[in-house]
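Researcher: Please predict.
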Amino acid sequence: MGSTRHIVDLVDELAAIRGNDPALTIEDKTLSYAELVELSRKAASRLQALGVRQDDIVVLPMANSHEQVSFFLGSWRLGATPLPLSQAVPDAELEHIVAAANARVVLREGQKFDEEPLWEAPNLLARRCRAQASGGSTGTPKVIVDTQPCVVDLNQDFWGWELGKAMFVPGPTFHSGPMNHLIGGLTRGVHVLMLRKFDARKALDLMSGYRTHWALFVPTMMNRILKLGEEEIAKADLSCLKRVWTSAAYCPAWLKQAWIAIVGPDAVWEIFGGSEGVATTIISGREALDHPGSVGRAAGNGEIAIFDTEGKPLPPGEIGEIYMRNKVDDRRFIVISQVKPRMSGEWESFGDLGWLDDDGYLYLADRRVDMINSGGQNVYPAEVEAAIQSHPAVDDAVVFGQKDDDLGEMVCAMVYSSSGSPSSEELLQYLSTQITRYKIPRRIEFADEPIRNDAGKVRRSALGVSQVHAGSQV
């Protein structure tokens, strides 16, 4: 039998051989492989009772949980395709996604069922492994369907899953990265650790307690862990980490450098690319030391070009819109969206701005739709956010523009600190040493709770004038 195998067949075999070994820990509860398989068979029976058949899409608006993972596996037993969503998805957005995906069933966490016999039929092959809804940062969410069947190739481990016995996947599975790596670990017999909702202290305790060799973060998570302080991080001893991947949002150079100092340059990696899978870039920690701030070069058969507003290619060093293409590999993802992609011939853009250096390394400026023009000066929110987040007392920040009669747009910021916010005056004084004056926010609001979701996403368009009060002007 070849190395490419059905996801659930592999999990079933692990249960038969290593049934008592830990498969999945979510916070303080661990399921063995045998327990996870039994739960997934029950999930398959429940889905079948709801009318789910092969090739159906099953929408799962749930937090990370053993129940959610059991419905992933249960869907694949029936040959169906799971589509995870945030448990807090608004009704209108859920309705849009269900209609776009033509989904048969929506199943929320804790839904009650009559007891059904365990599913004992042969596992069917889902011809479409998974579906995701985009983060929505560009507007109406898209549904992105992976056309690859629910199989894995055991000979492929570019990510480093098998470098140890325990891996940490704290992000929500409604984002493609955590779901992919959950599958990668479970099918290879690696103990997967997750959180229902990200918490820096719990994350540090899990990594330290289980001596994890692998972790996947969004930059916000990395920053929150850093804010626990050098003493706490040193006590946890993260030398066990052989791979730390970051994705889903731009990782500022200072933040990546801080993690390189903790786990070493060979352990830190970043991947950048749209969920649509046109192309990606990858950069190692060692490359990042030579190209600080870059997200890497095109990986595999992907290509990158920078175009101006008229669709003409720009030379290295000039900021424009980032376009990608892949002329070799078949397109893996189907995108269901009301919004057509921005195309320039064979090249496709997702609205990001940036530039290439002479060596082909890509640097991000920001999203085209998020760029702020203040008094005739272009301000890229990502740069300002990175400067604010580098303040020792700040956990996170989101920068956005608001209409202003004088400047056209005013630079504003929403700031979150779990340990007590710095004063506006203190933060402004700090920023004056970090960025040019015209980029410094004219208004700052301090949030009482995290600004981004656990996938590291935020909709700047939702940060309206009602959330920035006149008293916050600085």
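Model: DSSP finds twelve helices and 27 strands in the chain.
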